[in-house]
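User: I'm new to structure prediction. If I give you an amino acid sequence, what do you actually give back? Let's try with this one:
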Amino acid sequence: MGNQIIPAGTPSYCTANELAIEGVLKQAKRFSDKVLIEATSNQVNQYGGYTGMLPEDYRNYVWGIADRIGFPREKIILAGDHLGPQPFQNLPEAEAMPKACEMVRMYAAAGYTKIHLDTSMRLADDDRSQPLSDRTIARRGAELLKVAEEAWEKLHSQNPQALHPVYIIGSEVPIPGGAQVQEEMQVTDPDAFSATVKAYEEVFSEYGLSDKWKYVIAVVVQPGVEFGDADVHMYNRTDAKSLCAKLKDYPELMFEGHSTDYQSPQALRQMVEDGVGILKVGPALTFAAREALFALSHIEDELIDNPSQRSNYIQTVEQVMLEDPKNWQKYYHGTPKEQALKRAYSYSDRSRYYMPDARIEAAMQKLFTNLEGADIPMGLLHQYMPLQYVEVRDGRLTLSPRALVLDAVRVVCDDYNYATRK
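Assistant: Good question. You get back a string of structure tokens that encode the predicted 3D arrangement of the chain. For your 422 residues, that looks like this:
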């Protein structure tokens, strides 16, 4: 990317969860190429985001995990997703854009080399009765790119080995983390895609940035994939045929597809074949880790008779989410029972916001301690973790509880490996 090489297709793993990142990196050790790890503006920004991390902190956090498992740092491509005024959209442009510029500057200065410039959202003083114009979106994107370039030039002067960042643009950007409701799926209109590219090219020219256009490698579009609480809108290449045909007019570009979580391996592969070269995945990773932790909690219940000695992991997650509902309440609707099921099992996986909580972390560690070295009957493992059972049975995986969770993440990654590798 830049002077890095991007294959015909690559997964972009967007997560701040330690288990998810470790699982992604462990599966990537099987291959010789690079792996793309991404943070969003909600997770990581100059105010810490919901993780409490600045861009430099997140970089060091990912590197620390890599160092611990022996994955080379130089094979990690760090990326920033939805970088722009998204966290500040309640402010007018005169206040939101300087904050957005500072966030982008910090990402670029920290050495992130794939930057998604997302200026698709209305700000407080934008006309709510009209969609944002392509020109407004492009103008704001150009302002962000200019700051990123300045930050990179300073970084490069200090470290000549620093790689030049590449940029992702696009105005049809799904909200971070998936849709709130399942609505009629609208594939990006081919003319709208062309209008986006044209607007950016014109604004880049006006801003004296034409020589930077070569670093724009992809445009975010809606190819017809999305997920909600309980539904997944699967890719239909027939619906996306006209859009993908239009891409042939822009041989220097590819599409970036957001919300590709929970797609089938075959659908993911078709997307890559059709020009969606970057496949974003996030909640599916933590969903898999959460699912595995819940399975281990059920195994623990079977093996430990005394409830006071159990981790009570599932109950702890529910308790913490109920005590602090801000990260799920406006997303999960319905009866109390329906909301409880969504807190535990929704595809949007709002529980990922609570994983760093000290009580949940302590429950997880107790769960691991209780099951580490435990003689889990293979039939019991098969009941709750059938995919991991096969790996253990065939000698590819140990019965370590942490290893079982990491393997659940590996299963998700393998779908993307199938889609993006020949």
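You can read the tokens as a compact description of the fold. Here is one thing that stands out. The chain has a mean pLDDT of 94.
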